[in-house]
User: What shape does this take?
Amino acid sequence: MNRGSAVEAAVEIGQTIRAQRREYNVTQKDLAQRLDMSEKTLRAIERGSSSAKLESTLRVITALGLQFQVRRHTDRTYGASLLP
Assistant: This one.
């Protein structure tokens, strides 16, 4: 996965989180308080910012009843250029 793909994935995850939060009619402030995190952190997650820590993102995903799944790409050459 190149940097562009990683950024796109982070943005897509953030958009999914934002949509789910809004579906539950929960504000960023309320969700951040419930998770004992700053609103700034939650905003960064929802924007797909590279400053957002994976641990924080996973806490939000879990709290909203979402799942995060990592799968092996079906094309074996995908990402192979990163390996020795």
Summary: Helices lie at 3-23, 28-34, 39-47, 54-63. The chain is about 55% helix and 0% strand. The CA atoms of residues 14 and 46 lie 4 Å apart. The chain has a mean pLDDT of 89.
